[in-house]
Design a protein that fits this description.
alpha/beta, two-stranded antiparallel ribbon, eight-stranded parallel barrel, single chain
Length: about 300
């Protein structure tokens, strides 16, 4: 069952750049690094991938490259979202999705649709998607919150909507989805720091930023949580807590790219309007990585 494969940790993969261009050699290293670190699956072309700065042809090539380099080692989820429903349908037609297992589709941003508008948007996406759909609610970036009722309505009405990445930070809303969801519907944290709390409440895992930089350590925490050993999971997470908080001090993916650059995995380059992490953040990561042995 696909939902079982997409429980645990999906890594929201970064896009490395060099001199303004996609650094495919570094991208290949990142794919190998997170797979060797034990992540359950990879999510391409999400927020952490700087997808808004990628041209549509670049997105299509990146999706194909990631698919080819994974070579079936782990499942793959590809981001297909936007604030124009017709543009999302264009992505579904133009991307080569044959090697992917599902798509992740964000709530339309900036234009702030109503709850009925959100439902109609995802109805249209579900009806046209050749793959199962994971919803993505992130009101801090999109400007609109998809309520528990709208999420549950989508989950009940469309068999190929199989889960949600919930990044509202509203634990009561997330709990309502967990309590009232149809059987098999995934509830995934969109916030690394809330992962263990959501799993303890019955959620299924996380689509993680931190797993880019610290996959082995992060997987240790979540694997204990999967076993129901939350005391040990919390104990392990204590060694990551400071570093995870530092990842978001200057925004995402600025922080995680800064950490990976300090670790020598990628260069620090980003595309405007995002800029590399500050020297003080680099120094903080160097100290935290050494103190907690996070390499």
């Amino acid at each position: 069952m696909l939902q079982n494969k997409l429980a645990g940790v999906g890594v929201a993969l970064i896009t490395p750049f060099v001199d303004g261009r996609v650094d495919y050699k570094a991208l290949a290293r990142m794919i190998d690094y997170v797979i060797e670190g034990g992540v359950d699956y990879i999510v391409a072309l999400g927020t952490t991938a700087e997808t808004p700065t990628l041209y549509m042809p670049e997105r299509a090539v990146i999706a194909m490259y990631i698919t080819d380099h994974i070579r079936g080692r782990v499942p793959l989820v590809i981001g297909c979202g936007g604030n124009s429903t017709s543009e999302v349908l264009d992505q579904l037609r133009e991307f080569d999705l044959r090697g992917a297992d599902a798509i992740l589709s964000v709530t339309p941003y900036y234009n702030k649709p109503s709850q009925e508008g959100l439902y109609q948007h995802f109805r249209t996406v579900a009806e046209h998607s050749p793959l199962p759909v994971i919803l993505y609610n992130i009101p801090g970036r999109s400007g609109v919150n998809m309520t528990a009722e709208t999420t549950l309505r989508c989950a009940r009405d469309f068999d190929n909507i199989i889960g949600i990445k919930e990044a509202s930070g509203n634990i009561a809303q997330i709990q309502e989805i967990i309590d009232r969801r149809p059987e098999g519907f995934l509830v995934l944290s969109g916030d690394d720091g809330m992962t263990l709390d959501i799993m303890q409440r019955g959620g299924n895992g996380v689509i993680s930023v931190a797993a880019n930089a610290f996959p082995k350590k992060f997987m240790q925490c979540v694997n204990f949580a999967k076993e129901g050993n939350f005391a040990r999971a919390e104990e392990e997470y204590c060694q990551l807590d400071e570093a995870v908080k530092a990842l978001f001090k200057e925004g995402n993916p600025t922080g995680v790219k800064c950490a990976l650059s300090v670790m020598g995995k990628i260069g620090p380059d980003m595309r405007l309007p995002l800029i590399p992490g500050s020297e003080s953040l680099r120094e903080e990561f160097a100290a935290l990585i050494a103190r907690y042995d996070l390499k």
